[in-house]
Design goal:
The complex is a heterodimer of chains A (about 240) and B (about 300). The longest helix of chain A has about 30 residues. Chain A is globular and about 60 Å long. The N and C termini of chain A lie far apart (about 35 Å). In chain A, α6 runs parallel beside α9. With about 240 residues, chain A is mostly helical. Chain B is about 35% helix and about 30% strand. Chain B contains 10 helices and 14 strands. In chain B, the strands form 3 sheets. A 6-stranded mixed beta sheet of chain B has the order 6-7-8-3-9-10, sandwiched between helices. A 4-stranded antiparallel beta sheet of chain B has the order 2-1-4-5, with helices on one face. Chain B is elongated and about 80 Å long. At the A-B interface, α1 and α4 of A face α1, β6, α2 and α4 of B.
Chain lengths: ~240, ~300
Amino acid sequence: MNTTIASITARALLGRRRFLLLLPLPLLLVGLTALAHGLHPDPSKWGEPVVAGLGFAVVLPMIALVLGTGVLGAEIDDGTIVHVLATPVSRRDIVLAKLAVAAGITTAVGAVAMFVTGAIVESVRFGLGLAVACAVASIAYSALFLALSLVTRRPVLLGLLYVLIWEGLLGNLLTGSRALSIQQYAVTIAANITPGSVLHARLSLPVALVMSAAFAVGGTLLAIDRLRSFRLTGETS
Amino acid sequence: MDPSASTVELRGVSRWYGNVVAVNDVSMTLGPGVTGLLGPNGAGKTTLLHMMAGFLPPSRGELTVAGQPAWRNPELYRMLGLVVDREAVPGFLTAWQFVLASAQLHELPEPEQATERALRQMELQDAWHRRLGTYSKGMRQRARVAAALVHQPTVLLLDEPFNGMDPRQRLHMMDLLHRTADAGAIVLFSSHILEEVEQVSGTVQVMVAGRLAASGDYRSIRRLMTHRPHVFAIRSTDDRRLAVALLAEPAVAGVDIGQSGLTVRAGDYGTFARALPRIAQRERVRVRQVTPSDESLESVFAYLVAP
């Protein structure tokens, strides 16, 4: 991994207290979980809506969206990407460094929140299961959103449509759409790590693992290909 | 030695966006030395530079840098330095960190030494530990040039490099471009300001409306520009009487009388400017308005491609 690109990217994302912007959603998740646990110690009534409906459906994809579209998209928007691209570093190395930063920070922020949530809901083992599922989903989401930032000028809008409409709305109405839902992969992986928990898998584990890998690899390859053909646009004089 | 090893070569290069042709059938060969890419805004200079730098594929034609295609070829940047016209820099980095990152990304064996040399070349040694976000426009520009020079490229492309620089910084930059070229590099910089090109470059490529309008020695092209007819719009108390008097003036090549006044074509700007008040006074005509109607750079360049 190109550490120069990774360190500059991480500084751009987290520097000058920007990391504070990533904290409200995880804190909300942990806070709501603690509140629900305090009011009703039996998680069978509220566990799944909080863990899957808030944690995997909102908190994790939103953090991934902000970071995944930001690692390259922000530099493309302000034009500073040219300082990296006008060097002999292979486009694959640039994408992998950006992806590592996006997925790494998403995992760090998301997995800690999910671990604490799981530990409050059921047990430390459940928390670990959620953290592992969170890490897998972070890589898949980050690759998808990174690729979106190179494919379209409105990656955040398209990312939101995927998370809210495809995963959130259609995922509950159309069974088939779950096969293309990273959220469902995460729930399936977590449910399989801790069978009998409040989570219920709606896909088979092999499908969840293979499709997560497909999103991660596919998104990465698409991003590399698009970056190889990156065109400087804007004012032409 | 392969003669293409030290050239930038364009053969019939065009670039269009939908129905808009930004660069139209341009052929040129650039060798070592400083070359100015001159043209008004919208002439296609930036598009041409972006293609040379590998950031745009030509829609048609062939473009090579040192014998290699520029498009989708990151290895090219081992020999090519680029300063684009957008001023954006990562403001949270210091100039030292910014240029050092460039040196590291170029995999230079001694990145710190290369960074120091490039920053000293751009006279930023007193401010290199300050964040770029605190820099003035001219200082940011110099930091970007330092990052482009850190690997000592043999091809240096600069888009409007003098923007935002004060006169002393401009002189310094001009000197730097000459020294870079004297070391054997191909230096191409774009500008829409005639005087900038005049001071830096002996060789120019003039772009007008996407086409290469003129190419070669600056002085002969400048002579063409200086000796073109100048057009003035004049309104007076007696246009017909003034027109007759002006036609007798050697500096005047022609006069048209229209509803909004006179359109005068003068061969020499200075002679006509001195003659007009004298003639008006002699003919007892009051001149109400004199407007040079073709002084925009576009019209100067357009003259070069006029049939």
